[in-house]
Each structure stands twice: as C-alpha cells, then as structure tokens.
Amino acid sequence: MTASLSPRFFPLVGSLALLFLLVHFSHFSTGGANPQGAFTIYGRVYLPDGQPATRVKVILEMTNGLARDVLSDDDGDYEFRSIGGGRYRLKAVNPAAPEQYSDPAESDSTRAYANRVNIDVYLRLPLHGKKEGANPGTVNVAEAAQNIPKPARKAYEQGLKFQKENQADKSLASFNRALELYPEYFQALAERGNLLMQSNKLAEALDDFERALRINDKYSPALRGAAYCNIQRRNYEEAVSQLEKSLLYEPKIALSHMLLGYARLSLKRYDQAKQSLEQALKIGGDNIARARVYLAEVFAHEQKFKEAVDEIRAYLKLRPDAADAGSLRKMEEDWRARGRTPKDKH
C-alpha cells in the first residue's frame, strides 16, 4: 500500500504494511554446487517496520528433526555454520514482542551454488489480535454457531496456507471458493479483505470487511481492517467508531490504539489522541514506535515543544533510517527553536 494518510507525516503504511511483509531468499553464486559439504546459512532478521531485529531468536529446523538456534546480533544478522546438506526451514521469534511472528522460510542446499546460503527472515504482526484480550464468549459464540461445510472450511484453510506462503493469487482463489460454498463465512471475508488491502483495493477490501461485520458485528479483525480502510480514505469519524468497538473485544492490541490515536489526531481531538497514543506505547513499547511521532504532534499543539522534541528524538534513535527521517529532523529543529525561552536565545 502506498496511499498517504496525512500531509503532516509520511504514510502510516510503515506500521500497517507489516501485515503483508514477504519472506524471500537470495543465494550467493560464487562457485559450483556443494550439496555434500558443510553449509553456512546466514542472513538478516527484520522487524515489522523494516528495521533490523536485534537479539531475536532464529531457529533452524532440519527434516531429520534436529534444530539449532542463535540470537541475531546488534545489526540483526545471524549465522549458522557447519550445516549438513538437505532441506531446512528458518523462523524467528522476538522475546520482547511475542505477538510478532515470521512465516517459515524453507530452502534446500541442493539449490545453492556455493556453500553459503543467504536467507533473510521478516517478522510481522497479525491483523488479528491476541485472544487473551478479548471479552469471553463474544466472537467465539458467533463462530460456534456457524455450520461451515467441510469443503468451505478446507478451502479457507488452504487460503490461509497460501497466504502464509505469499501466494496471493492462490490464496484469493481459495477464499473466493470458501465464500462460494458458504457466503456467511465472515472469517474468509476478513482474510480476503486483507489480501485486497495488500493490493491497495481499498473499496473492495472495505466491502468485504463490512460484509463480515453484517454477519458478526463483534469480529475485531474485521473492525480493525475496516477502520484502516477508512483512515486511508480519510473517513476518520467512522474509523474512530470502529476502532473503539474493536478495542472493546481486544483491548490489548497496541496497533489498534495507535490507529485510534492517529484518527483522533486527524479530527483534532488532541486529549483523546494523547490517551490512545500513550496507551499504544505502554502496550507495544518500541515495537509501536511510530506512535511517538503522532504523540509529538499532540505536544506541539499544546505548545509543549520540549516534549515534542523528546518524542521525535526517541523515535529517530530507534528508527534512524526511517523514510521520513530527514523531515522529522527538520521538524525537531523547528520545535527546539520554538521551545527556547528568551533567556536561552541570549
């Protein structure tokens, strides 16, 4: 997605495109194939916002059942040495943010043209929130009442599998099939909406989310997806309503709090925006660092320029290579100048 949400800052897609990060491999070609020898498997782990993931656990699993793990270094890099030939898969987990996950990256040493194989791993955030934050029985009752035909359920599960394998076309076809067999399949509607958002087909995505909500108006992933579409379309009032409702069922989703803060900020509801953004940071910490940028604008509106500068500085310390780092540094300088007292200026 590339649509901008606000002229004030760069797009919010830096937070939400995390939902759609792809896992890919690249191989160095420096010599002949070496399927019988020892291999070095290395690469970099990335956080959902594209920054290197430091001190996260990378797990290498072999088809023979053996497994090894290492921690990524301060640059997000990892390396496994003396790995035997064969098939293997890698995944990463972030102890500091358990909600982050990676789709397993699978490869085969026989495909390598040297004894070094490069595989980058991408952590991502689910659009679905953690279940422990939901009110008991709200969504589960609706799901339990479903009478999903087995072929529809199978198509839906295939769609999820293809989605994890980044096969968007096959995933879309599977969700379409599931909905042909069972039109009330609100989970499939929400997942198809996610795919459509990935292609920036916001109108179609929003239609799917709204259809899902007509079937189950308490389904938090559909509420969150619809709110994101409405933010992109600048329908902030509707987005606020949907996010507030979503948080009734899943109150511990940092991303939802940040989106709500952004929508409220866009409506100039500064006190409420501050509350949402501070809650996002309380829950998500550094993993929801972009909330600091929006919180800085709230402080600037309140003429609290020192606090605004502190938030921008904290964000840039975590994300020095952010796409809008240059404009944010200029903004920081401007706010620092405006925050100086007459005595400071002399």
Helix percent band? 40-55%
Average pLDDT value?
Answer: 79
Residues in β-strands, percent: 5-15%
> Could you say what the CATH topology of the largest domain is called?
Serine Threonine Protein Phosphatase 5, Tetratricopeptide repeat
CATH-defined superfamily of the largest domain: Tetratricopeptide repeat domain
Number of helices: 14
Give me the Rg, rounded.
22 Å
Q: What is the oligomeric state here?
A: single chain
Spatial separation of the terminal alpha carbons: 48 Å
| Main sheet record | 5 strands, mixed
- Count of spatially separate domains: 2
Q: Give the helix/strand class.
A: alpha+beta
- Counted beta strands: 9
State the low-pLDDT regions, or none: 1-36, 128-140
* CATH class annotation of the largest domain: Mainly Alpha
SSE arrangement, N to C: HEEEEEEEEEHHHHHHHHHHHHH
Which architecture name of the largest domain does CATH use? Alpha Horseshoe
Shape by Cα distribution: flat
Describe the protein in words.
Strands 1, 2, 5, 8 and 9 form a five-stranded mixed sheet that branches. The termini are far apart. By secondary structure, this protein is of the alpha+beta class. The chain is built from 14 helices and nine strands. The chain folds into two domains: 23-122, Immunoglobulin-like (Sandwich), CATH 2.60.40.10; 131-320 and 328-339, Alpha Horseshoe (Serine Threonine Protein Phosphatase 5, Tetratricopeptide repeat). The model is unreliable at 1-36 and 128-140 (pLDDT under 50). 41% of the residues are buried. The protein is flat. α4 (168-181) runs antiparallel to α5, α5 (186-198) runs parallel beside α7 and α6 runs antiparallel to α7 (220-232).
